[in-house]
Model the fold of this input.
Amino acid sequence: MKVWLATTDGALEAALGAVLGAPAHGLRTFGEAAAVGAALDREVPDLVVLDAREPQSGSLEVASRVRVHPLGSTVVLLALCDSPGTAAALLAEGVDDVTTSLAPSALGDRLLVCERRHVERAALAERRDAGRDAASALRDVVAHLPDYIVTIDRAERIVFASRGGPGGEPEELVGGLAVDHLAPEQRDKFRTAFAAALATGQVQSYEADSHGLPWAVRVVPVHHGSEVVGVTLIASDLSERRRMEAQVRRTDRIAALGTLAAGLAHEINNPLGYVMLNLTYLQRRCGEALALDHETAWLRDAHGRLESTLEGVERIRRIVHDLRVFSRGDDGPLGAVDVVAVLDSAVNVLDGAIRHRARLVRSYADAPFAWGHQARLAQVFVNVLLNAVQALPEGGPELGEITVSAEADARGRAVVTIADTGEGIAPEVLGRIFDPFFTTKASGVGTGLGLWICERILAELGGEIAVASEPGRGTRVTVVLPAVRTPGATSAPPEGDRA
Ligand SMILES: Nc1ncnc2c1ncn2[C@@H]1O[C@H](COP(=O)(O)OP(=O)(O)OP(=O)(O)O)[C@@H](O)[C@H]1O
Ligand SMILES: [Mg+2]
Done:
């Protein structure tokens, strides 16, 4: 035990030393009581023995100074005094024990009591420090949770906040009224849940829009014994969940449309077959009759009409074919895909929309094949082409140009470029166009999922997509697709093999 003694009395020093069995206990003597207080800033003893018999010993001041010292909580104070009045004053000032006798047995007893008390205090302080560490670790965790956690007392005042308001510290909220930080339309909901939580002791929950975001709020009663002394409010941002729900709804809708389209296409395909056969037959017979010089006005007219009808039916056949490509629910195994054929299907699907806004230029250097799923690649090309169409003003094909090109690169990968002369993309927006739900289009026109889906499909297939744009001049989207795998080969041939 580290013992400090404040006295000028050599007899006391000797008596204490004898009882302690110095020097093992490291008794340190201070002639002036005030020196104890000063030394405390550098070192902390376990026990301080104050000689309060001496006139102007300053023991009272030292006792009060040790008690308020930040490190003084484990220090035990023992005072030697000779009057009951002084003893009472010393005990009131925070001295733990007093003795009036210098006799070794009396001093020994007091020291034993003081030692036990020090051990208890040190253990308590350790537990308190551990508790403080755990509480501060917990506070750090809570501060980094995505949820807002606020504890509120029965008077609706904030007792704890995990995070501050905009630009502020959490402590700044403490003491204020909780409702002052809620949007006016939130207050009734909060008050109802707050009152119910206090009255019933049960967790309450509600949903609310605040600061432009949807929130789920839980109001958890805080108990002290059997009494509810307040609530902890946990507010979670629901935006991400709402987005995911919207996406699932959209995906469901697309899947349902796909099934419907596949069913329709199948039903139309059969009658379409014999309609085409019969029309072709009739047109041929008209042609033959005309050739045999059975020319009459009506025959020539019928021949012409059949020809245009056949054109129309051929267009229906193409659309039905494309619908079947798009709606194939099961993508089936990966395989070699004719990139140009898929591109043409995508162009056909959007043919009407393209014709209202742009000239279409196709430039197929060769006919590359790629490794993938026909339906999924078609989805990529339609999304990109639709963006190109939507970037151009409506009003006629002379207003813009959309160029679709396909070629193979040196590594055998198919490179497809879809470029438009539309409005382009502002540089500050370019970094966000692949984010889900990022759109610059009016609601109902775009959901901001097109490019995100493209990127995901290509990532799964092992392809890439890149967008370059010049505002006011146009946009160029480049899609690189993995090369067709030949049996036995594990990867594309190294660069240079074919270069
Ligand atoms: N060819 C393009 N020209 C100009 N802007 C484009 C072009 N392609 C994409 N963008 C920009 O990128 C954004 C995101 O495109 P994305 O296809 O992901 O969503 P969207 O077209 O807005 O909606 P969705 O495709 O879901 O109907 C668009 O809103 C637009 O601002
Ligand atoms: Mg789009």
Notes: Residues 114 and 363 are 97 Å apart (CA to CA).
